[in-house]
């Protein structure tokens, strides 16, 4: 009995890929998810991956992807700059079947080399498809403060709570990307701070991060906005932080 199996050749044109997009956290996370999903479900279907028009900084992305790729997959990946890739494609796909804009002979019936009648080319994603927006709620709030945090840096905000049972309420969002957040407490300036809200990196692309804690003791409460892990990007943080009575928060 004959057994047929299909193999896939993937062509990735990186022309126009900017350094900002290539190193964006969301882009890299999406690529990692795609790689893991493909390898978990279709590991035998891959014949070849050709990456062409790759800028020099693509090496940054590739070095991050490599650890999740098995050696047998890495052997099937070929990366090219602006030359040599068309010849490589023609070794895998017959010229009569390959669209002209990729170095083949196939065109649309009207001679269009881009073959738009059977290939859906990349285009901007409609605004209606986005779940998040670049417009920030707190950016235009007159009651909000702004922190500009340099790359590989952090900022701390100090609050003296003089009445036990008070609450610290916060609301913040970043202009882009994520930010580290935590809250610490010490009874006086001589003591070492104790973490009371665990440190975590928060992405506010879908809306502001909100919360509050009840201050069981009087003392100094420190709110940390941490960007020390980011060696490339400064962060702009919009925030509102208030000390309130618990009843005011519960009735809000």
Automatic annotation (TrEMBL):
GO cellular component, one term: cytoplasm
Location of the CRAL-TRIO domain: 1-110
Domain of life of the native organism: Eukaryota
Classification via InterPro entries: CRAL-TRIO_dom (IPR001251), CRAL-TRIO_dom_sf (IPR036865), GOLD_dom (IPR009038), GOLD_dom_sf (IPR036598), SEC14/CRAL-TRIO_domain (IPR051064)
SUPFAM superfamilies (UniProt xref): CRAL/TRIO domain (SSF52087), Supernatant protein factor (SPF), C-terminal domain (SSF101576)
Residues of the GOLD domain: 135-243
Record-given protein name: Retinal-binding protein
Native species: Trichonephila clavata (Joro spider)
């Amino acid at each position: 009995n004959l057994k047929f199996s299909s193999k896939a050749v993937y062509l990735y044109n990186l022309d126009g890929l900017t350094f900002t997009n290539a190193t964006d956290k969301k882009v890299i996370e999406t690529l990692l998810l795609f790689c893991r999903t493909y390898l978990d479900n279709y590991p035998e279907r891959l014949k070849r991956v050709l990456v062409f028009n790759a800028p020099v900084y693509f090496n940054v992305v590739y070095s991050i992807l490599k650890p999740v790729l098995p050696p047998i997959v890495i052997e099937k990946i070929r990366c090219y700059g602006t030359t040599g890739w068309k010849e490589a494609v023609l070794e895998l796909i017959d010229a009569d079947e390959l669209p002209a804009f990729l170095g083949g002979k196939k065109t649309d019936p009207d001679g269009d080399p881009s073959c738009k009648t059977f290939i859906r080319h990349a285009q901007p994603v409609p605004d209606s498809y986005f779940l998040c927006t670049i417009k920030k709620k707190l950016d235009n709030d007159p009651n909000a403060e702004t922190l500009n945090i340099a790359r590989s840096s952090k900022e701390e905000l100090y609050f003296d709570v003089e009445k036990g049972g008070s609450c610290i309420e916060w609301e913040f969002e970043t202009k882009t990307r994520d930010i580290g957040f935590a809250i610490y407490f010490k009874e006086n300036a001589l003591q070492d701070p104790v973490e009371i809200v665990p440190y975590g990196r928060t992405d506010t692309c879908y809306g502001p991060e909100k919360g509050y804690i009840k201050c069981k003791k009087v003392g100094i409460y420190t709110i940390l906005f941490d960007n020390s892990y980011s060696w490339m990007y400064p962060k702009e943080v919009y925030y509102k932080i208030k000390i309130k009575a618990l009843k005011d928060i519960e009735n809000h």
